[in-house]
Amino acid sequence: MRWTRKHLLGLEGVEREEILAILDTAAKFREVLDRPVKKVPTLRGVTIVNLFFEASTRTRMSFELAEKRLSADTLNFSASTSSVKKGETLRDTAKNIEAMMVDMVVIRHSASGAPHFLTDHIDGSVINAGDGTHEHPTQALLDLFTIREALGDIEGRKVTILGDILHSRVARSNVWGLNALGAKVTLCGPSTFMPAEIERMGATVTTDLREATADADVVNILRIQQERLEGGFLPSLREYARLFGVDAARVAEMKPDVVIMHPGPINRGVELSADVADGDRSVILDQVTNGVAVRMAIIYLLSRVRAQERVEEPEILAEVGL
Amino acid sequence: MRKIILKGGRLIDPATRTDDYIDLLLANERVAKWGEGTPVDEDTLVIDVRGAVVSPGLVDMHVHLREPGREDEETIESGALAAAHGGITAVAAMPNTEPTIDTPAWVEYVRSRGTAIAVYPIAAITVGRGGKTLTEMAALAEAGAVAFSDDGSPVESATVMRRALEYASMVGRPIISHCEDLNLTGSGVMNEGFASTMAGLRPIPAAAEEVAVARDIILARTTGANLHIAHVSTRGSVELVRRAKEEGIAVTCETCPHYFTLTDDDVRTYATSTRVNPPLRSAADVSAIKVGLADGTIDAIASDHAPHSIEEKEVEFDAAPPGLIGTETLLPLTLTHLVESGTITLGRAVELMSTDPASILGIPHGSLAEGSRADVTVFDPDWAWEVSEDWFLSKSKNSPFIGRTLRGRAVLTISRGEIVFEEPGAAHRAGETHEEGEHHAAELSVHA
Ligand SMILES: [Zn+2]
Predict the structure, then answer these.
(1) How many CB pairs under 8 A join A and B?
(2) Looking at domain B3-54+372-447, which CATH architecture does it have?
(3) How high is the ipTM of this complex?
(4) Which chain A residue has its CA at the smallest distance from B183's CA?
(5) Is B304 one of the annotated active-site residues of the chain?
(6) Which residues have a Cβ under 8 Å from the Cβ of B142 and sit 6 or more positions away?
(7) 3-class SS of residue B366
(8) pLDDT tens, position by position, for chain B (448 residues)?
(9) Strand B53-56 and strand B376-386: pairing?
(10) What CATH number has the domain spanning B59-361?
């Protein structure tokens, strides 16, 4: 099946065949990354803007690298949403981008729906690099890629996502993607971190870590943010670690070949102990490498859709005598 | 002054328990006479309203007209014209303007704008809507305030609310409460449920409204005062009000068309026109609201007309101010989603949009009995039409209903015996060529 979408805003509603198209394409780019010369000329002449309204060194670097490996021209725009009046920047930025005739925009924003807002205002393709607590589709796709790499297949596998589900766009995108590929998803975390009716997304919900991880093939551990303490969601990080922290003792109670994942950056000693993060069950660094390949695949597939859209342009140019 | 005869229409007037084909004579700003046989002289305008419904002018007891302060979004004049366009002949304007309507001078300012329809000021409960000091309710009532409300935000202190109920009761005016527990709302922007989980937008639980409704009902019981609850939107609130009424507590309440037509699922597009407070709720809440409208738990349908500029609304969802425009779609949405679907009768619809809100506010509207004020709405209940942005007369266009097909709308609005709105092409003056109404069933024709 071919990829026919113009934008990647989320994994909700994205079908199995489409996800496989991305993962298969990513596998080819993953091979490129192992070559001595890691660059392909595929996207020469294509302009991509990385719009980061929320700080994220990792994701931005991963996208930039993917774009450079594809030989695209890239521009970076970073702005803190707190330093400017909320609302105005995005609209003005969108208008500027539209005027610059950019082909693709990668956007990270603290407001859920900000990428959707962009699609209403610009002509180019939009890639959601994380919006509020909505979705983070490229992270979920690289997680899927990494699971497939580690286990061979995703169908029927038991995947547990552990931690602050409420504030996690990674969790949401993972549930959609894992379900599309036939995995069995369990969500585990404190009851204050469970969003309303999340089970309707198609997941088992539990607050019991042991129950959630006993027969899991994959445990994907989310980052716990200090600021959640102020929101009254947690009494303390110590109490969190006591109930939900994953350390060697807990891993010993899991399947011997369990795959441990984390989207980073890790709060070592809170949600995950250092020895497990760096241990042999961990694929955390593979996730980082695979992230570049998966993002290359997404950019490549979206640019192909856009190129087809532009086939009519020569005729327009002919009309104006160029 | 010209007399008007409305001829051949279906007259629905719940105040007199009338639903029949009766002609209506309006003279000297009053409903002069029912029935046929009125001598037609040169000063009489005869309007053929066969196929249409003739009802008492609609009363919208909850609007935000933005004047003073945000005249770029709406003025009292433009808001009144938009209301007339929607078949409304009286509105009650909320005091959360800049500055707040909390002095007799500002009440008089709102009252004396001289608009096409009647604009009744609601004054604030507390000075500057600050939640601390009660306003001079006696002076405000004397100046023309029909009720008191800090709408836009709740009265947070239970003690202040208790005193307000006691004091307003002495003055003889209702308190209109915007029921919301701000701690439970937090930084929420949409209803808590599966939709908010999927959209990743910060949730507002139904409990944020219901906790406040429960508190105010208990305070109404304690004080014996008249409490009116604004924009009821959840199943739990409907249940609380139903029980309070059974107990004999003096509580009334309103809901708004968006709470029986839209759900939180409509927010998933991130369209900022769907951001409103209270937020659009679940399908189960919508069903409960409909039951409440049918069984009499809910007393009125009001628009909560809240104009916002494009600049303010064309932003990320959670940066957009809550509110949507509603006076012009109040009647069409009620007809489409409640009457057409069989939830309520036309008579009940008129009660909810005219008779009952008028009686809650104690204003001389909501009846077509002989001798009452000549405020009349003529509407075509069968006209199917599509809502478009340029159809609105409001200065703001923040409606989530643009693009929807609705059934029924006002074709003629008469305030104090004067035509303040008539659908172009629907009514025909003497001497004009009369074309068959192409787009709707009700055909109005006018003969001098
Ligand atoms: Zn309100």
Answers:
(1) 67
(2) Roll (2.30)
(3) 0.93
(4) A231
(5) yes
(6) B104
(7) coil
(8) 689 999 999 999 999 999 999 999 999 999 998 987 677 788 889 999 999 999 999 999 999 999 999 999 999 999 999 999 999 999 999 999 999 999 999 999 999 988 899 999 999 999 999 999 999 999 999 999 999 999 999 999 999 999 999 999 999 999 999 999 999 999 999 999 999 999 999 999 999 999 999 999 999 999 999 999 999 999 999 999 999 999 999 999 999 999 999 999 999 999 999 999 999 999 999 999 999 999 999 999 999 999 999 999 999 999 999 999 999 999 999 999 999 999 999 999 999 999 999 999 999 999 999 999 999 999 999 999 999 999 999 999 999 999 999 999 999 999 999 999 999 866 543 333 334 443 444 555 555 4
(9) antiparallel
(10) 3.20.20.140
- Nearest Cα neighbor of B445 from B7, B3, B2, B56 is B7
Q: Is the pTM of this model over 0.95?
A: no
Chain B nearest CA to A104, separation (Å): 20
Return d(Cα B235, Cα B239) in angstroms, integer.
Answer: 6
The pair of three-digit structure tokens given for residue B339, joined into one six-digit string: 């009457």
Range list for CATH 2.30.40.10 in chain B:
3-54+372-447
B contacts of A196 (beta carbons < 8 Å): 192-194, 196-197, 203
**Pick among B189, B197, B274, B282 to test the A interface (most A CBs inside 10 A):** B197
Neighbouring residues of B251: CB distance < 8 A, sequence distance ≥ 6: B217, B220, B226, B227, B228, B229, B241, B244, B245
Which secondary-structure segment (H or E) carries B32? strand B30-34
Q: Where in chain B is the domain with CATH 3.20.20.140?
A: 59-361
CA distance B123 to chain A (A): 32
H or E stretch covering B158: helix B158-171
d(CA A96, CA B392): 31
